[in-house]
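pinging the channel bc i need a second pair of eyes. not urgent but kinda urgent?? the chain im working w is below, pasted from the shared doc
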Amino acid sequence: MDIIENGTTAVQYYDSALSSSFADLSLDNIGAFMGLLPAYADTPNAKFYMHKAVWHGAFEAALTSAGGTSAREIKDGYAGQPTLFGYPVVFTQVMRSSYTADKIVALFGDLTLAASFGDRRQTTIQISDSALNAFEQDELAIRGTERFDINVHDAGDSSTTGPIVGLLA
């Protein structure tokens, strides 16, 4: 998120200019935010990423205030994963959960184009019967380790939009 927050407005993020709360987010803001995503990143893997509190406090509120939602839809909620304009919404608890001025509160795009996962060493399993007092207790100690790394290699720059864009509160 820091890479996008430190980027350029209207390139890497949309500044929603929220005055004091999520309640001010409108469908126009969401549309402009989505509009920043370049065509090459609008793939079947494109998703929204946000904290569950942001979904319920801002995005869901903007949708229900637009009208057209039946009492049954409100009562029954979502059947499975929520979607927004046909894109899946992924809840992630590491995103901000409350309004924080000038901070990214939601991401939209294809993370598979922006980051890579590297397996530096496959999972190794070791079994020992002599760890601490395992032999005396008739126990086995099992240890599993793995090394991996994640590299965010394309978040865009000051003049080029990358495959993931942010919504700035």
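so Strands lie at 13-15, 47-50, 83-84, 87-91, 104-109, 115-128, 141-152, 164-168. and The chain has five helices and eight strands. — does that match what u expected or am i reading it wrong
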